[in-house]
Amino acid sequence: MNKILVPCDFSNTAMQAFRFACELATKSKSEIFLLHVVEMPVLPYSRFVPVQAYEKNFMKGIKEKVNKSFEGMKAKWGGKTKISLSVEAGSVSSSIQKFASRKKIDLIVIGTHGASGFKEYMIGSNAAKVVRQSSVPVIAVKKAMKVSAIKDIIYPTTFEPASKELISSIKELQKLFNAQLHILYVNTLTRFSTDLITGSRLDEFVKKNHFKKYTANIFNDMEEEKGIANFSSFFKNKIIVMSTHGRTGLGHLLMRSIAEDVVNHIDCPIWTYTRL
Length: 276
Hints:
The protein has helices at residues 12-28, 51-78, 92-103, 117-122, 126-133, 164-177, 195-209, 224-232, 249-254, 258-265, and strands spanning 3-7, 31-38, 83-89, 107-111, 138-141, 152-156, 180-187, 214-220, 238-245, 270-275. By secondary structure, the chain is an alpha/beta fold. A 10-stranded mixed β-sheet has the order 3-2-1-4-5-10-9-6-7-8, sandwiched between helices. Helix 3 (92-103) crosses helix 5, helix 5 (126-133) packs antiparallel against helix 10 and helix 8 crosses helix 10.
């Protein structure tokens, strides 16, 4: 991990994400790219005030304010980490993806307010959109947490074949945080199997992927997301790591990603790896 992208709108959650990223960059000796995206207002053309001239002056004013806020954050939390600022106009989620691709980003750390109800189903938070679309791992941060405080990594699995990249990344995180790994299978009514069968599959999954310093856990609950949330509540300083599917359009509305639900509803940092 050499390059960390932090999308930032200077909200409280965005600043907590930046703080988390700075600590992470110090441990991993990474570079941070801070990106502020401006969604430009749509204006009718006027021969008295040309739209291009207005946009240029608008962006100039935004950049001055953003740079001032950036310098304050950098002085407070940046330390000796190499940090650069970019201000771009466009839609938030697509600008983040294009920037990550252009700069060959290894990890995105993004603040999230979460989402619920109508907003969750029809719009979704920007963090959830990034989780769904990103080709690189994402850490969603909702509340302040010190990287040095993380002692437990919770890894929910359905025993689907995991890529070498995913397993390797989880092991790297475990080493980086010096944390205990808790492999979790949530047993639900719609996907029920006996403890004997599930335990055997857990053992096989662990042996196949050569995990170390781990616990293997079966947790019964009504839904996967609730099971992850309820199991996670037993641990104070944790991060949840998940593999998710990239979905858009009707398929996304009918089959919401569990990882997006977790990002929207659970307060601890969530690391996601999207299988597109």
